[in-house]
Amino acid sequence: MEREELTRYLDEILDAGRFRDYCPNGLQVEGRPVVERLVAGVTACQALLDVAAARAADAILVHHGWFWRGEDGRVSGIRKTRLQTLLRTDINLIAYHLPLDSHPEYGNNAQLARRLGWLPDARFGEQEIGWLGHLDEPGTLASVAERVAGELQRAPLVIGDSQRRIRRVAWCSGGAQGLFEEAIALGVDLYLSGEISEQTVHLARESGVAYLAAGHHASERFGVQALAEHLAERFGLDCQFVDIDNPV
Hints:
This protein is an alpha/beta fold. It has two domains: 3-101, Udp-n-acetylmuramoylalanyl-d-glutamate--2,6- Diaminopimelate Ligase, Chain: A, domain 1; 103-216, Udp-n-acetylmuramoylalanyl-d-glutamate--2,6- Diaminopimelate Ligase, Chain: A, domain 1.
């Protein structure tokens, strides 16, 4: 399909223009005008670019793209090598950050809920990025952590009483530890995010609300994967998800 048709469709379905974000969403680096083969991944790192080039991809679709606010804008060193790879191979780079966290079907938080058996019923936080809900079957913190580890293939860092009963939950993928205090005020038993900060541990201990730090990368694999599967089904594109290992 034409690149403009693809990016226009993605902009519309993800409602990209609605978000105040830290980076540009949509087409970030222009490549060839027609897209047949697409490689999807979490982050536009050099390893993913090399895989896409080796597979003769026409486009790369990621959650973490480039040109972050406050980042050094000079194209040198690692940035030069990454950009040079795309320009040499004429591959399009397409990235969606907050829109891919938020989407009610293909977003990271929606996909986490689907895999973990969590039932969403509300949103919270700035731009309603955080999600609220309850478990399909209440259980202990230990049993919830075990399920998270199984679904994400990564053991989460667990803060809290392992035998605490968990029913009400809040979650936000990636680096959303800053929403924890708001989640506490909403009366949840557990908050899950990708990362945790030093002060967050004390908030969990003193509030009694459990915290699961499931991994930034691990908690954000499913959104772009689901979106790529949707594109393959709707448009017949050859879409391949490539998981570049990241322990964080």
